[in-house]
Amino acid sequence: MSAPVPPFPPLPLSAPESSLTIAQRLFHHAWPVLVAQLLSMSMLIADTLITGRYGTLDLAAVAVGSGVYISIAMLLVGVLQAVAPTVAHHFGARRVDAIGPALQQGFWLALMLALPGIALLAFPGFLLELSSVPADVAGKTRDYLLATAFGLPAVLLYRTFYAFNNALGRPRALMLISFIVTATHVPLAWTLVHGGFGLPPLGVVGCGISTAIVNWIAFACGAGYLARNRDYRPYRLFANWQPPRRRDLLALLKLGIPMGLSTFIEVSSFTLIALFAARLGAEAVAGHRVVANLAALIYMLPLAISIAILVLVGQAAGAREPARARTTVRVGMGLTVALVALIGVLLWVGREPVVALFSADPAVRAVALGLVFYICIYQIFDAVQTVAAHALRGYKVTFMPMLLHALCFWGIALAGGYWLAFHAPGREQSPTVAGFWEASVVATVLASALFGWLLHVVMRRPQNVQT
Asked: How confident is the model at residue 448 (pLDDT cuts 50, 70, 90)?
């Protein structure tokens, strides 16, 4: 008979930890999350390359459709991220019996959120009309979104598992599942789009079908991992299954809705900036897209470290160890800013060959090179506000950060950027996409200051934080 499995890691969470130890724990947690995120991004890139070789209309449809799909999915996934701080607090407080029920309620919430999400994906007419999508592209976009709708429940269920697994400090399984999903999606999408093995070519719909299939594969892998891993047995995740509990669901929604809206605000602001920039011509849009892609790639690093910070802060807050939580924030902030600053310097030094990888058009390169300076500065302050926002989530503080996100990203980056691009003195006759990036830099500087102030207040008043 095997020895019983300890419910927690051998190292007691209450043991004093040095800055070096915390840095090691952050890296141990962050690097698998980073790999998983990059693999997920590669699926979107693969869809663009695969449909681009099939037809222009299908490429346009996947560009529009993926934007709609990501906006809806990330809004709902953001709500489900409430599972992470909830479970992290239970883990830190050693409330073993509360961990399994928290996951179960997260799964119920995922299924409930899937209903409005499926409706939006299956009937996206009003969204496409708002964007003035041409009729031929809109038709293909509808078919793509309908195909992805079948996989949305799996996305939300898997992301609940994703948040749960992160909260327990076990991100390597997420990296492995992301590799399986990506390795499956690329050949499957190619086959469904272009035809093969007796299947007719489906065009952009093939990408949607493949996306739905691999989302169910991801959830099946996650569920199998939970069921078979011995380390999860003490939590009795699938025993005594509970029905939906109003109090627990409302607690998750109270915590998660602001998180989902914060994510949506950030994603939608960049989507809308791209739409407004379309008025400036193809070269401006393409140049903006190049630097936006670079910014998204760089952002994966601070996001991965921030997720690790959320988990460690949540565990420390649950254990009522404010000193460890503060040290985690301080070490995490220093590491993130230092790494992003280094990347910014390297990007600035190698900006010309890097931009050349994205476009061979001299006009597009000229626009992109004129914007590189802004993202080098932008990323540093964005890293600060990202770390602070996730640390606040670890403390279960989400409503005020949502308001700050709306002020900075919608009020300044989007509205202010529109004014700077088209109506600022001297630009009425010669508008420029640089206005949006100038406003984005101002927005992130303000966001870093406001989030930093709020985090300082919360860290100094740990007795007011929920556990």
From this structure: very high
Cβ 332 vs Cβ 391: under 8 Å: yes
**Which pLDDT tens digit goes with each residue over 4-18?**
444 444 344 444 578
Specify the pTM.
Answer: 0.87
Cβ neighbours around 51 below 10 Å, total: 28
| CB-count burial class (<10 Å; 0-12, 13-18, 19+) for 44 | middle
Confidence label for 132 from pLDDT (cuts 50, 70 and 90): low
Q: Which residues contact 245 (CB under 8 A, 6 or more apart)?
A: 101, 105
Calpha distance 407→413 (Å, rounded) = 9
Judge whether residue 382 has pLDDT over 50: yes
Cβ(306)–Cβ(386) under 8 Å?
A: yes
Tokens of 153: 């429940």
* Pairwise CA distance, residues 255 & 105, whole Å: 14
Are the C-beta atoms of residues 459 and 325 closer than 8 Å to each other?
yes
Q: How far apart are CA 75 and CA 256, in angstroms?
A: 10
Residue 278, number of CB atoms within 10 A of its CB = 12
> Cα–Cα distance between 236 and 238 in angstroms, integer?
6
Q: Which of 90, 136, 94 is nearest to 7 (CA)?
A: 94
pLDDT at 463 over 70: no
Query: Does residue 128 or residue 212 have the better pLDDT?
Result: 212
Q: Which tens digits make up the pLDDT trace of 214-233?
A: 999 999 999 999 988 888 88
**pLDDT digits over 306-357, tens only?**
999 999 999 999 989 999 999 999 999 999 999 999 999 999 999 899 888 7
**Residue-level pLDDT at 197:** 81
What does the pLDDT look like over 260-318, one tens digit per residue? 999 889 888 877 787 777 677 767 777 777 888 788 889 999 999 999 999 999 999 99
